Amino acid sequence: GLLSCAQWTGIPVSWLLDDFPHLEYVSSHGMVFPGAKTPRQLLQIWCDAFDYLYDEIGSGIFNVTMHPEVIGRGARMLVLRGLIEHIKGKAGDFSFINFQIDFMEY
Q1: SS3 sequence, 21-75?
Q2: For residue range 87-100, what is the model confidence (pLDDT) as tens digits?
């Protein structure tokens, strides 16, 4: 569910729908695990996840996390374009919501 605290509302992140672990690397315990997916593989994963939500569940929130320094490079931008085209190609009414994130300094 949604986590709320004062003025903040957070939607939990799914690593399956996050570009970073697929395309970059994860560092843990002194080891580096490189992303194992090509942009085309990531697009297929995201399209399949959306299709499952659309075809099997019928409604819900499709919460994709994209980092500008990850998705914003070369062929990776085609993933974003392809996902939007795939979603728009389905019958029905969809809302694309834009969030502006303000980074807080600690």
Answers
A1: HHHCEEEECCEEEECCCCHHHHHHHHHHHHHHHHHHHCCCCCCCECCHHHHCCCC
A2: 988 877 666 665 54
